[in-house]
Structure to design on (379 residues):
């Protein structure tokens, strides 16, 4: 089911200086000199369309730097006047919204820690009633697509039609090269549900270190995301927050200059014809795959009945280990990705367990219904 949002196209409310759309600036506004110097260098690159800066910083523990506060809005106002760059800040409550609007901030965004809390999002939405300003909503910290969608819906219902999403990755217990796992499939799902919704990627928070930013940013552009939010500081080595993930304005320009920009469609007829032919081949293969999956589930049902009739448990670990070893070895020989193969097998196995569980408990369910009916009749 498609997500119904009343929104305006991105290019109607953001003027892009140079592809791709780039929102950049320091993680935190620290001093007026730091913010203004960074802003001027970013503007000089000719790559940046919007200047961002953290004014209020939600921190995990008390005592850490929680942002310079309202005075930073005055610095942003001066940076805008001197560079011509529109400004963007994060807001986490109604007071932030009121102060940002009073200071003439051009774009607001809702952070991941706020998106996770519907009460917080609603408070922000209520403060935005009757206001015509672009709002970007970051994905929640945890991988919950419905929370992300719910936040977008709340802001949209407040009358905000200049609306977009920011994909900044998700918290995970698994250790990896990323600060926050990209989980690209979540952003793809959101885009599938609402194709007209602009999605901007935040490589800085996904990576947690500057070395991976160009890789993640390029992948986001290849997935047809509409822009990037990359943190930039005049001297990241002395940044008060998130020093490792910020880049200098010069480094940012180098990253952007090395992008390969692609379009979602081509007007080349030969390309279109060849693509249609290849997609037709995929359609035929997909039909065969689903037919074979249906056949497999039919056999699974028979196995479930046989186990039930012979008093055998559904899960048999040795058999599952055998399947995993054989299938992953075969998949490797076919040059299929191991992670993909394991996930696919787990999905199939999970459905097999579900079907066999239904078969095992079918009789008990019928007995339960009959017992309830008997009890009701006696009552």
């Amino acid at each position: 089911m498609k997500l119904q949002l009343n929104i305006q196209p991105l290019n109607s409310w953001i003027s892009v200086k140079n592809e791709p759309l780039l929102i950049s600036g320091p993680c935190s506004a620290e001093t007026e000199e730091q913010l203004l110097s960074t802003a001027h260098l970013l503007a000089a690159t000719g790559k940046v369309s919007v200047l961002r800066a953290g004014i209020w910083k939600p921190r995990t523990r008390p005592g850490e730097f929680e942002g310079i506060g309202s005075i930073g809005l005055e610095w942003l106002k001066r940076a805008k006047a001197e560079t011509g760059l529109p400004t963007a800040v994060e807001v986490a409550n109604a007071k932030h919204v009121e102060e940002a609007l009073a200071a003439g901030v051009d774009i607001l965004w809702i952070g991941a820690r706020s998106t996770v809390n519907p009460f917080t999002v609603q408070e922000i939405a209520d403060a935005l009633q009757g206001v015509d300003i672009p709002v970007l909503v970051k994905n929640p910290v945890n991988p919950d697509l419905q929370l992300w969608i719910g936040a977008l819906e709340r802001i949209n219902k407040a009358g905000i039609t200049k609306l977009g999403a920011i994909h900044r990755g998700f918290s995970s217990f698994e250790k990896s090269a990323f600060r926050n796992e990209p989980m690209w499939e979540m952003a793809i799902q959101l885009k599938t549900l609402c194709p007209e919704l602009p999605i901007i990627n935040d490589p800085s928070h996904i990576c947690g270190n500057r070395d991976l930013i160009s890789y993640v940013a390029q992948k986001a552009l290849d997935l047809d995301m509409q822009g990037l939010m990359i943190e930039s500081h005049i001297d990241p080595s002395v940044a008060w927050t998130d020093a490792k993930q910020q880049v200098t304005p010069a480094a940012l320009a180098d990253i952007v200059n090395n992008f390969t920009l692609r379009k979602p469609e081509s007007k080349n007829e030969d390309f279109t014809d060849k693509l249609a032919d290849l997609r037709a081949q995929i359609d035929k293969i997909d039909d065969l795959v689903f037919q074979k999956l249906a056949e497999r589930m039919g056999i699974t049902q028979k196995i479930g009945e046989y186990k039930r009739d012979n008093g055998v448990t559904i899960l048999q670990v040795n058999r599952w280990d055998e399947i995993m070893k054989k299938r992953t070895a075969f998949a490797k020989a076919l040059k299929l990705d191991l992670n993909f193969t394991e996930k696919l097998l787990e999905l199939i196995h999970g459905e097999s367990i579900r079907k066999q569980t239904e078969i095992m408990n079918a009789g008990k369910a019928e007995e339960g219904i009959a017992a309830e009916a008997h009890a009701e009749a006696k009552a």
